[in-house]
């Protein structure tokens, strides 16, 4: 009898625990699950999650199981999965062919649907692939090593799962399609394939949110939001929902080096969330112990408020923006990593590559370039315009601000 009572009370306690867990997640629960997901995805066991590898397949299976546990519907072509094959041409001047047939590398998008019985659908996406052991795209200069990509982009993928957990408890007038993309690092392969082979009617898509590198919120709490010019409905909501006093750094263009671009090119409003570049970018040192998990919770909560605040709007209007394809073309490089979160005058340097012109000229991390040649540098675009005037072999003056002082140097391209 005692055994029966113990067993019954144990079952009741378990049921109550499950019921309690089934409510909207607390910040503490989000923190724990975000950390658990990032640690799994960025573990050495997954070998850097390069498209077509066993590690990428393990990551895809993990995501599908998590979506299923959250009660979401599979919306791929094979359950939660949407496989695609990319055939690389032997001619380097030809584009890769993305389809389902032929020889090549095969990746899988992971697609899940939160059905709110609505006629509009929001797409929320993040890429889960990374660089594997390095190779093309890596900034690592040593021996081959696992590139775990904790920030790029286990952080965004973990955020995807967290948003699914939050938004399933909300009364929404939009369905939500959650997509974990593969092949992003190779050229937006997964998102490109999806928009050309959608598993829902793209005409019903309201807008798309992309999270790529959202795990390094800095002390200033700077959060970049790109694509704000792609719909007039976006900008009015940003400040009113900023409960955590984030420093919002916005840009209008719907085109950028991440998966939102594929949706923008289908004339859909897009937002790309990003917490900034860092010196571990595309290196083996981008590990899970460097993620700011408390900051990631703030980013996820902010995005959830964007979704719920825009929920009462009619279908968002699309606006074409002046895009990076209109940017000046340049044939030389300074060899610096720009600080994309900097919103002051000039272009702040976030990293200096070894053996490049900037290092030879004595530039340091934290320097702000305010003049290049005869051109004043006000921001990233003016820096790019100034850079486009030079050819390999040219030399020019560069003026930087360092610790409140102006310093001149000569840079040789």
UniProtKB/TrEMBL annotation:
One of its GO terms (biological process) is proteolysis. InterPro entries: M28_fam, PDZ, PDZ_sf, Peptidase_M28. It comes from the Bacteria. Residues 332-404 form the PDZ domain. GO terms for molecular function: metalloexopeptidase activity. PROSITE patterns: PROKAR_LIPOPROTEIN. PANTHER family: METALLOPEPTIDASE M28 FAMILY MEMBER (PTHR12147), PEPTIDASE M28 DOMAIN-CONTAINING PROTEIN (PTHR12147:SF26). This is PDZ domain-containing protein.
């Amino acid at each position: 009898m005692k055994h029966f009572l113990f067993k019954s009370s144990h079952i009741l306690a378990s049921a109550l625990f499950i019921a309690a867990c089934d409510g909207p997640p607390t910040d503490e629960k989000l923190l724990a699950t975000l950390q658990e997901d990032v640690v799994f995805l960025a573990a050495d066991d997954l070998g850097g999650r390069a498209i077509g590898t066993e590690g990428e397949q393990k990551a895809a299976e993990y995501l599908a199981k998590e979506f299923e546990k959250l009660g979401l519907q599979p919306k791929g072509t094979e359950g939660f999965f949407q496989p695609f094959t990319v055939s690389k041409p032997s001619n380097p001047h030809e584009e890769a062919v993305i389809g389902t047939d032929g020889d090549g590398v095969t990746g899988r998008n992971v697609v899940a649907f939160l059905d709110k019985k609505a006629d509009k659908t929001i797409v929320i996406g993040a890429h889960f692939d990374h660089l594997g052991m390095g190779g093309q795209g890596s900034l690592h200069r040593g021996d081959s090593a696992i590139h775990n990509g904790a920030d790029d982009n286990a952080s965004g993928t973990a955020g995807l799962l967290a948003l699914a957990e939050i938004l399933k408890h909300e009364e929404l007038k939009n369905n939500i399609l959650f997509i974990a993309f593969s092949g992003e690092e190779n050229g937006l392969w997964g998102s490109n394939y999806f928009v050309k082979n959608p598993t829902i009617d793209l005409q019903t898509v309201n807008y798309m949110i992309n999270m790529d590198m959202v795990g390094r919120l800095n002390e200033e709490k700077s959060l970049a939001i790109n694509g704000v010019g792609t719909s007039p409905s976006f900008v009015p909501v940003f400040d009113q929902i900023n409960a955590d006093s984030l420093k919002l750094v916005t840009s209008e263009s719907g085109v950028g080096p991440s998966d939102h671009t594929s949706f923008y090119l289908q004339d859909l409003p897009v937002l790309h969330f990003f917490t900034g570049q860092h010196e571990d970018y595309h290196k083996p040192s981008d590990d899970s112990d460097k993620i700011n998990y408390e900051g990631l919770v703030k980013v996820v909560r902010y995005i959830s408020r964007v979704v719920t605040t825009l929920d009462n709007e009619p279908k968002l209007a699309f606006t074409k923006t002046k895009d990076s394809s209109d940017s000046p073309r340049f044939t030389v490089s300074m060899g610096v990593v720009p600080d994309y979160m900097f919103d002051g005058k000039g272009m702040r340097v976030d990293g200096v590559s070894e053996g490049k012109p900037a290092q030879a000229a004595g530039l340091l991390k934290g320097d702000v370039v305010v003049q290049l040649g005869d051109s004043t540098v006000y921001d990233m675009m003016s820096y790019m315009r100034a850079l486009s005037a030079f050819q390999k072999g040219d030399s020019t003056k560069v003026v930087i601000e360092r610790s409140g002082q102006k310093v001149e140097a000569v840079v040789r391209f």
